[in-house]
Amino acid sequence: MSLPRRRSRILQTTRKIGELIMTYFSKVSDAKSKGKPVAWVTVFTPVELLYALDIYPVAPEHFGALCSARGFIVDYLEEAERCGYSESLCSYSRCSLGYVLSGMNGIMPPPDILITFRNSCDVYVKWWQSLHMHLGTPLFVGETPYVLAPEDLDNYVLDYVVKQLEQLIEMAEERFGLRFDMEKLVEVLKLSDKASELWFETLKLRRFRPCPLGGRDSASDIFPLVVMQGTEEAVSFYEELLREVKGRIGRKEGVIEDEKFRLLFDGIWIWHAFDLIKYFEDKGAVFVYEPYSEAWAYRLDASEPLESIARKILSMGLNVDIDIRIERFLENIKQYQIDGAVFFSNRSCKTWSATQLVTADILNKKVNVPYLLFEADMADPRQYSEAQIKNRIDAFIEVLSES
Amino acid sequence: MEIPSEIRDLCENPTAILSRYRDSGVKVIGYTCSYVPEELMISAGLQPYRATNIRADPSALTPSFICPFASATLENMIRHDDLFSGFVVAHTCDPMWRLYDILKKKTSKPLFLLRVPHNTKNELSLGFFKKELVRFKTFLEENFEVNIDDDAMFNSISLCNESRDLLKSIYMLNSNNKHKVEASDRFRVVLACMWMPKAEFNVKVKGLNFDNSKTLGDVRLHVNGTAIYESSLIKIVEESGGFIASDDLCTGSRYFWNNVEESDDPISALSYRYLLRTPCPSQSPLEDRLDYINFMVREFQVQGVLTFAKRFCDPILYDSVHIRSMLSKNDIPTMVIEYENPAQEIGRIKSRVEAFIESVGG
Ligand code: SF4
Ligand code: SF4
User: Residue B99: pLDDT above 60?
Assistant: First the structure.
């Protein structure tokens, strides 16, 4: 007789994500076949605006994560590299460029417009330009200046972004013969805001001990906030998720049975080595806070639709001053009672990785949080050395046990 | 033509001039990039100094896969912190953006981030950039207790225009099929302009005679890249039989190609010039940059285009694919050489350059 398997603590709601993704992609294909425009967007683009215009958003970054997680990214990466894109470039970008260069035979329908707002990285500009060069599709490059202080969300910086949103609306109306409807946008905003509110509430519940929702959940559960902000489906998903998480809290049921260490994770998840999260969990360490999970939600004010959207795309986690980011870390380390920090130094994502060492050092000095910093690539499995990383994790867990 | 030893020495060790400034009581602002208008610093009575990676290794504060140029520049800024009175960083690419973040945690000197819109062909960007320049002016006035009036700006604009005119006239000596100025000489003169007081530079360069028909190589090339401070790369090309007739380097033509209009609204004129100048690889639209390269290739009648791509430099690495595809339509051969530390890779770089020059010239 075989031993009973240890109960996996992934939430039931999280398990529905796969299906949600497939439904979403078939809806986009459907829309495309009915002649509706499809936009390829970078992930912190105002998707709400597009839904209000009846344009369907697809996010190549999400596609990159998906291909990596499902194990078929390497062909695309290699195709991009064969065509001259250096291996050192962001693997999400290499993935979609490879997809385009190999004929787009997959779930992402070809775009009718390419839209980016440069908030996470400057790579966005280069990547979208490159797609535009290969596809010849119209391109909109929006600028979201670095937010140096909270005032920027109310001064000429905000004004600049709001006006660009108006430009985008105008461009879409002209190009696709659409008519923008402000009332529709307000409805979409309310739904988007609701989904964000629910997600924030859910994340806050991770402050409980034992933590009811782990990294494997949060990594998947963000999907509806990536490209489905403003849809009913997203709201229902987060309602269900919140209910389930509350249930766990009532039953004092955690992600792992014996929660020893509560960790923060800084970075994008490593999609091709998702099991690494479980490796931590098996050692009694659970992820309770990630800037990445938080980044997707933003409370919107439907009485100021465009301003609100502009503030949202400006405030994306990596686009606010380092001091604000460090303050957030310090606050959350306290709120979530964090014992240690894991920094994933991501070879693809220079914008994120560049300041990690300095940040980790400051946190360590200020609140004495031990940290682990390791290098790999979020989507390219060829740049991953499992044994080495696991050794480092083992050593880190030892440090945590001693402190 | 002999480059004066003062300029030669300066290029070997530009930080030496920082001590000279300190000893004579001149306040120096270290800046990172050719998107920062030197005119504003000069009109505040400050000396602009372009920070570089010369004589520094990449900083241990950044990961190993960050652009080694940006990282070593950061290292130099931190190392010589006491010789500067302040810093200005322009947000162009990711490493420069993050260099600002790290510097903010490491220096006690006044520090300014100039937010350069990436979409340059947009009226809104121009309006925004103008406000950024006003913010920059206020930053200088407040931190250095000066008042920058229009007259001071008029003067600095014409001073910098004069430097740019001089540099451009030197470059134009190689236009059409002419073969006059060695790139290694020209290169030093451009760099000196970023470190010396402009008035001194203008006097010195006016006295130089570049019209020299004795050059080493004769295969006409255009060099594409970002900021190159390593004279060794230029030397490799020359010694392999190449003649760098033109370039679009940030330490080359992109620094001086366009002048500032001498109008009665200096801030507008500056914002116009700096946003709409020949674009850096980090900017959009890419088509503008491709047009510029095409123009250079024709104007200087080059036979091939060589890209020196710093390892991990995203802007150049994306662009090189499109530059190659554009030029191949006109039968202009291209080669991309990715490098990290020229001093350690000299053999590999040399053999690739030689092979390229041979195929182009042959
Ligand atoms: S992974 Fe980083 S570099 Fe790549 S698209 Fe995302 S934010 Fe940009
Ligand atoms: S443009 Fe390229 S070389 Fe210049 S700092 Fe940025 S990444 Fe480095």
Answer: yes
Nearest to B71 by CA among B37, B114, B102: B102
Q: Do the Cβ atoms of A133 and B286 come within 8 Å?
A: yes
Pair (B67, B184) in one structural domain: no
Flag if A129 and B119 touch (Cβ within 8 Å).
Answer: no
* Rounded Cα distance, A236 and B39, in Å: 57
The set of residues, in sequence order, having a beta carbon less than 8 Å from that of A396 and lying 6+ positions away, is A340, A342, A370, A372
Nearest residue in B to A134, CA atom: B322
Q: How confident is the model at residue B215 (pLDDT cuts 50, 70, 90)?
A: low
Q: Measured between CA atoms, how close is B83 to chain A, in angstroms? A: 23
User: How many C-beta atoms surround the C-beta of residue A257 within 10 A?
Assistant: 12
> Do B132 and B239 fall within a single domain?
no
* CB neighbour list of residue B30: distance below 8 Å, 6 or more residues apart: B49, B50, B51, B77, B80, B84, B86, B87, B88
How far is the alpha carbon of A126 from chain B, nearest alpha carbon, in Å? 6
* Facing A89 at nearest CB: one of B124, B286, B317: B317
B267 with B125, same domain: the answer is no
Mark yes or no for CB contact A350/B285 under 8 Å: no
Q: Of the candidates B123, B147, B171, which is a domain's last residue?
A: B147
Q: Which tens digit of pLDDT belongs to each residue from A355-385?
A: 999 999 999 999 999 999 999 999 999 989 9
Distance from CA of A87 to the nearest CA of B (A): 9
B314 Cα to the center of ligand 2, angstroms: 7
Give the number of whichever ligand sits closest to the CA of residue A318. Answer: 1
Architecture field, domain A184-402: 3-Layer(aba) Sandwich (3.40)
* Same domain for B296 and B251: yes
Rounded average pLDDT over A318-333: 98
CA of B118 to the centre of ligand 2 (A): 14
pLDDT at A2: 43
Distance A350 CA to ligand 1 centre (A): 8
Residue A390 and residue A279 in contact, taking contact as beta carbons nearer than 8 Å = yes
Sign of CA dihedral B149, B155, B159, B160: positive
Options 1.10.238.10, 3.40.50.11890, 3.40.50.300, 3.30.420.40; CATH of A16-178: 3.40.50.11890
Q: What percent of chain A has pLDDT over 70?
A: 98
| Averaged confidence pLDDT in chain B | 95
pLDDT in tens, B43-53: 999 999 999 99
Nearest-CB residue to A123 (from B63, B286, B314): B314
Give the predicted TM-score (pTM) of the model.
Answer: 0.97
